[in-house]
Amino acid sequence: MDDLPDQLVWDILSRVKKNVDKNSASLTCKRIYKLDNEQRQSMRVGCGLDPANQALTLLCNRFPNLEKVEITYAGWMSKLGKQLDDQGLVILANNCPSLTALTLSYCTFITDLGLRHLASCSKLSALKLNFTPRITGCGILSLVVGCKNLTILHLIRCLNVTSVEWLEYIGKLETLEDLSIKNCRALGEGDLIKLGSSWRKLKRLQFEVDANYRYMKVYDRLAVDRWQKQWIPCESMLELSLVNCIISPGRGLACVLGKCKNLEKLHLDMCVGVRDSDIIGLAKKSSKLRSISVRVPSDFSLPLLMNNPLRLTDESLRALAQNCPMLESVRISFSDGEFPSFSSFTQNGILNLIQMCPIRELALDHVYSFDDIGMEALCSAHYLETLELVRCQEISDEGLQLVGQFPRLCTLRLKNCLGVTDAGLYPLAGTDKLDFLAVEDCPQISEKGVQGAARSVSFRQDLSWMY
After folding, report:
1. Whole-number Å distance between alpha carbons of 244 and 317
2. Which residue numbers delimit the F-box/LRR-repeat protein 15-like leucin rich repeat domain (predicted)?
3. Of 272, 288, 337, 370, which has the maximum CB count within 10 A?
4. How many angstroms separate the CA atoms of 231 and 196, rounded?
5. Helix, strand, or coil (residue 59)
6. How do residues 120-158 score in pLDDT, each as one tens digit?
7. What phi and psi values does residue 267 have, to the nearest 5 degrees?
8. Structural domains of the chain ordered from first start
């Protein structure tokens, strides 16, 4: 190794992906130790930092070229020593001049003061905060004012982020490409209007409302009305995920759905108010759509939507089939088995989508309308590779036995299906038809019954969900 040039040793070390392996390699000789210290660009630390600030100082001095740092205190207890505090962020700001990405998870000692120190990190482009309860909107504002190159911002369970001035400021910068706001109790759908012209640059948006602690201002009709009058450009949007959101007809997020002409991935989970017209409008604009996941809520009793007709039917699936020729992943889920008759997808609608699009991955959850006839129709699904069935109680052994006739199926997952038994899997034994079979909590399928039905098998049985 002594005869190898530094650049070659660097190249060798760059191929070692796991930090534990890099640590082992660096102990072999002083030269590799020195080169590894110079090359190391990422670091993940947490409960093992003790004392936290002193240990972080040593690490930053050892690795002067760190670009990505993740600090996580998941599972932390007081007996593990004091957590990293605001002084730790001072250490990062002063000792990591190349810092571009920072993740703080369960860092309960970090406050707004610590974020202000990070404002001096001019190269910081990605910040992810997961359950940092002492952080408020003021701290985030001070950071975005200093870090004008921020392209990725994730806020997850930041319960005290109440003010949204930071959203308005970052909207004017027009640098943000990836925004994720999940279960931040004080932030509602109407606050997204503050992004302004930044919608033009946004490529990925994840917005999840904490349904148990919904802030009352999301019902503010004036805020939604103001959003309606604003033009929202979303030409760059590639991925859109909305969870527990209110989709008010012709306003707010409904406007966004109809303007994502380059959208590739859509996830709508328990979004109240989604109508056929929303999905049809999206399908006509988003011909590049590759993946769609929809979980339909069964409770349509919210006062905001009482006077609006709500329809989500096969018309939506028909529009997707006719306008999205690249669609290859579909997940349809009902929140429970009792749905209003006016809001449901039928088996015919699902099969029509599969026949007209190159669907490679299909997942059905609580879709009671899908039965053995549907399984028979899948025998002509020439692109289907992965099938997941959850609580599809109308499927029997007769339908399951048809899996062997699916042209390209290689992965099958069954969960909480009451109507299938070991007999449904017998035809697959020893055929090598499936690469992977997962059976979870299906009361009539035994561990013995799955053996030999695929090259790789996963089996789990917990029937507490039935009682």
Report:
1. 21
2. 376-450
3. 370
4. 9
5. helix
6. 999 999 999 999 999 999 999 999 999 999 999 999 999
7. -130, 115
8. 1-40 (1.20.1280)
